[in-house]
Amino acid sequence: NSPGNEEEVIQEYLEKYPNNIIYKRLEEDPGIYGVWNMGVEMSSGEYLTNANLDDRKAINSLERHARELYTNDDVDLVYADMAITDSPNETFENNSSEGRRYNFPQFSLDNLKMSNMPHSSPMWRKSYHDRYGKFDAKYRSAGDWEMWLRGASQGSEFKKINSVLGLYYFNPKGISTNPENFSWKREEEQKVFEKYAS
Hints:
- This protein has 7 helices and 6 strands.
- The chain has helices at about 5-15, 30-40, 60-70, 110-115, 130, 145-150, 180-195; strands at about 45-50, 55, 75-85, 100, 125, 160-170.
- The longest helix is centred in the last third of the chain and has 15 residues, at about 180-195.
- The mean pLDDT is about 95.
């Protein structure tokens, strides 16, 4: 039972795009990274990305990310800057960010140790998981950062696209942005940092 009533919403798209969508209803919530691992296993494409419910992508975001991976064989993951809003349900094209943004640094392992630069809208090669494994489902918020550090610490290359291609909603009730979660979130991030600090 999803509070978002996704089954009713997805039916329209399943009928419209029957060959492009796989819908799997879960009886129990395995957590965000458990679900992402299912998505990795069920996917058939060469490139993967996530779509967070409260964030938005630019209309050309997927194309720009895929083009960078296609033209850079040595790159496993690409990411871009994001505008920031405090208002829910805005579009990338029409939002109230007023220039607020995540201006991520260029990729280096040292920079990645300090900040999860891929943040909420990376695109990466499915083959990344053949080399570096699955997302660690024990994490509630920092599992993607741990996954990216795991690969980058073993030589995986990432690349920043120097454009704003996403809109991040700073959701006061979000897993990573709710002040009530900050204590356990900091502990989780500290464990990831210490794991890859040296």
